[in-house]
Structure formats: structure tokens, C-alpha cells
Design goal:
Length: 250
């Protein structure tokens, strides 16, 4: 049984169709990359999974259970964790306090358990050295890591990463990819939306391309990037094509 299953999900904002009949499964422990042009509906799809966005139709199943009626907090307790495209740490709190709050309110842990969980998440996101700094003083890479640490502190079985590598340098991207892989190695399923395609190609089991509210391609990363339908949606756009064919988009 798949850990996550989207079954014919539909969503529109006014006239804009952001998801039309989207069906998708993610197996336990899998690392799935998601690409697609701006406005394709990627972040909205995460919202539909995490409970931040209510779909107009279709079902969301987590671990075999329909979760449509559950809010974001309840889904978080079930094991669905996410990061946000624009990092939004709580200001006026240290890095540690931000992560502790996630362990307490996201995972529902108390006392010693919450402290241990927060410390573990900080370590995995490589933030121990800045744990006592005010969160608002962090640079971009560390803010992205803090997003991950907060999500990890909620003890996810499914982790949704929304463009955590954007704006980072190559070595920083490599560092972040290493963290993602170590999280997967612990058995957490990950869905990673990312414009930095080379980061995905380096580590995903599978790549999904979303465009125009639907799934354009789904499969092995190189095959998906070489798919003419995928090339088509990126014409004139900014996809990075490190490993595929010669017909680079204009
Ligand atoms: N809360 C909202 N209300 C109205 N329109 C929205 C809302 N959220 C997203 N949209 C629109 O839905 C489309 C898809 O957005 P999004 O899911 O953020 O795409 P992506 O993450 O692929 O760039 C865009 O046209 C965006 O403007
Ligand atoms: Mg987005």
C-alpha cells in the first residue's frame, strides 16, 4: 500500500485550474522529485496534501486512510511534515526554540521527549552551532535548514520539501542534498519540489513533472527530463538541463 495516494484531485482558484484529476502515489521511504514551471500548481498540491488547501474534488489518502476532513495540525500528527517555499521562522525566538515548538505542537511531544526530538532535528539539519541564535539572524542556507529542522522535529513519515535549494550556491546545494538523503535513509518518504533540477537528478528515485494542473510525466529522472512533453512545457522557461539532449529550450 502506498504511503500517500492522491486520487483524482481537482482544485481551482476562480478561473485558474491548478489541479485537474491529479492521481499520484508515493511509496513509503521513496524520494520523489517534482518539477514544473512557475504557477504549475506544485505548492498548491503540497497544500492539498498537508491540509492547508482544501481540494474541490478527489481524495487524499495517507497510510490507507482518507484524510480530506483532517486539518493541517491533525495531518502533521499523523506524520505529514512540510517546509514552506518562503522560510517563515518565528521571530523573537532562537533557532532551538523554533524547532522545539515544532516538536511540541507538531509532533505533540512533551518534556524530555520534545527536548530530545528538537536536539535530534537540529543535529540532522546541521544547525547545532547556531542553535541559540535568534532565528531572524540566519542567512539563507541556514533558514532553509531551519525549515527542514522544524519539519523533521514533527517526526514525519512523509516530508514535503518546497524549493529548499533555491538561491543557494553549488556547495550549499550539495550539502542540503546530503541532508535530504540522510533523512530518506532513515525511512522517511520525501517529495521534493525543486527548480534546481541537478539536485533532484542526483538523488531522486523518481521524477514527476507538473504543468497546467496535470501530471505531464512521471518516471525515472533522465527519461522524464528527456520526454518531449516535458521539454515542451519548459520552452522559454528556465529549466536546468544538465544531463539531457541537445535541444536546449530557447
Ligand atoms: N490562495 C490562492 N488564491 C488564489 N490563487 C492562488 C492561490 N494559491 C495559488 N494560486 C494560484 O494558483 C496557481 C498555482 O500556484 P502554485 O501552486 O503556487 O504554483 P507553483 O508552486 O507550481 O509555482 C498560480 O496561478 C497561483 O497564482
Ligand atoms: Mg511553488
Amino acid at each position: 500500500m502506498a504511503l500517500l495516494q492522491l486520487d483524482a484531485v481537482g482544485k481551482r482558484f476562480g478561473q485558474v485550474v491548478v489541479a485537474e484529476n491529479v492521481s499520484l502515489t508515493v511509496e513509503a521511504g521513496a524520494l520523489v522529485g517534482v518539477v514544473g514551471p512557475n504557477g504549475a500548481g506544485k505548492t498548491t498540491l503540497f497544500g492539498i496534501v498537508s491540509g492547508d488547501v482544501r481540494p474541490d474534488k478527489g481524495r487524499v489518502l495517507f497510510d490507507g486512510r482518507v484524510v480530506n476532513r483532517l486539518g493541517a495540525a491533525a495531518r502533521c500528527r499523523l506524520g505529514i511534515g512540510r517546509t514552506y517555499q518562503v522560510p517563515r521562522p518565528f521571530g523573537g525566538m532562537t533557532v532551538y526554540e523554533n524547532v522545539l515548538l515544532a516538536a511540541q505542537h507538531g509532533a505533540g511531544l512533551r518534556g524530555r521527549d520534545s527536548l530530545d526530538r528538537a536536539a535530534d532535528a537540529l543535529e540532522r539539519a546541521q544547525l547545532v552551532a547556531v542553535a541559540n541564535r535568534p532565528a531572524e539572524t540566519l542567512g539563507l542556507l541556514q533558514r532553509k535548514r531551519l525549515e527542514m529542522a522544524r519539519a523533521l522535529a514533527t517526526r514525519p513519515r512523509l516530508l514535503l520539501l518546497d524549493e529548499v535549494a533555491g538561491g543557494l550556491t553549488d556547495p550549499e546545494v550539495a550539502e542540503l542534498t546530503g541532508i535530504v538523503q540522510s533523512v530518506q535513509a532513515e525511512g522517511v518518504a520525501i517529495v521534493w519540489i525543486e527548480h534546481v533540477v541537478r539536485a533532484l537528478v542526483a538523488c531522486v528515485d523518481r521524477l514527476v513533472c507538473l504543468a497546467g494542473g496535470g501530471i505531464v510525466a512521471d518516471g525515472e529522472a533522465h527519461a522524464v527530463l528527456a520526454d518531449p512533453a516535458v521539454r515542451e512545457v519548459y520552452l522559454g522557461a528556465d529549466i536546468e538541463t544538465p544531463t539531457v539532449g541537445s535541444e536546449a529550450p530557447a
